[in-house]
Write a structure and sequence with these properties.
The chain has helices spanning 7-14, 25-38, 53-61, 72-81, 96-104, 116-125, 157-170, 188-204, 229-242, 257-260, 289-293, 390-397, and strands at 2-4, 20-23, 42-46, 66-69, 86-89, 110-113, 133-137, 145-147, 173-177, 182-184, 210-212, 250-253, 264-274, 277-280, 300-302, 313-319, 328-336, 344-347, 368-372. The protein is an alpha/beta fold.
Length: 398
Amino acid sequence: MDRHQSALALVLADQPELPVHCLRPGAAKKAAEFFVRSFPGDVLYAVKANPHPLIIDAVYAAGVRSFDAASLNEIETVASRCPDARIAFMHPVKSRQAIRKAYFDFGARIFSLDSLDELDKIIKETNGAKDLHLVVRIAVSSDYAQHKLNGKFGASGQEAVLLLRQARAASEELGVSFHVGSQCMRPEAYRAAMEIVSDLIRQAQVTVDIVDVGGGFPVAYPQLSPPPLRTYIEEIAAAFESMPVLENADLWCEPGRAICAEAGSHIVRVELRKGDALYLNDGAYGALFDAAHDGLVYPTRLLRAKKGPRRVLKPFRLYGPTCDSIDTLKGPFLLPSDVHEGDYIEFGQTGAYGAALATRFNGFGEYVEAVVEDAPMMSMYGEALEVENVVALKTARA
């Protein structure tokens, strides 16, 4: 894979015809080191956020030895890169074949579930194994998250109580997990979730060995300035210590976006300008999915050799390359007013759910990959890079 000193150096050297996934493995390593150093428990990297081998390697190099996998493909990826890692199969609904292969071929012993039917599948497909670590997913609120995740998974009420009892009888270790939603903007959401979990454990009258607070740790974007991550960790640690139903339980977390967002950016080319609208060679069906479908505003900068005084910024509408009218990035995205066809634009913070969500719709979806050595455009773990998008810069320093 090509390596460049910076994204700008890449553009000036190659003038790429295709969009470019820029990888910054060092940023993922720095973020993972923060969690390993700061979180008072085990850190499981959520592979779905970015399964690229270089990111897996960087997270492992930071000291992470446990991985949250949601599919057999993710399990295979981790096992091939980190043979001594502990892999948790944390999707609450799995195929029977995936359960069998995860257990017998890859040594997975940790399985998430949120129903009695899934519990029955796991027991049968592992031949009634006695070394299972079963983690019951509990439904909690996503009210404080930018992206809600409470509509699809999670047991609640008496269903959860019964499931905890049944899973306890079938497991060597019993865990509980929840997810407060992606980009959770309020640390107290974790405490509220842990209070719900405590009440259900109390009702079930079972011993719990693992409390997994899931993901949801937020990243800074333009227009989104979450509290410092240390505040979240302090809130979780205090709530865990105050849970009255635990004795010697372990505490887990599953950061994904917070580890890999800064580890990637995305370079696109302007194919046409119509007034305040720019037509790009990637968009909603590619690595910029979250900007179109989840309303995220990425930091942006024009990759052009600097000439003359600082350019005036103005908001632009952005369109992707497909013929679908929903291939639109609302933004607003601030770029120099003289941007034109042939210019290259870099989007920051796309390391999470960027390349991982790209499709081949309409025949698009080919990319170049390169490692770049410059700093992320916005950083929670170091100094922000001085970029032309002043909104992004102010947000990063807030």
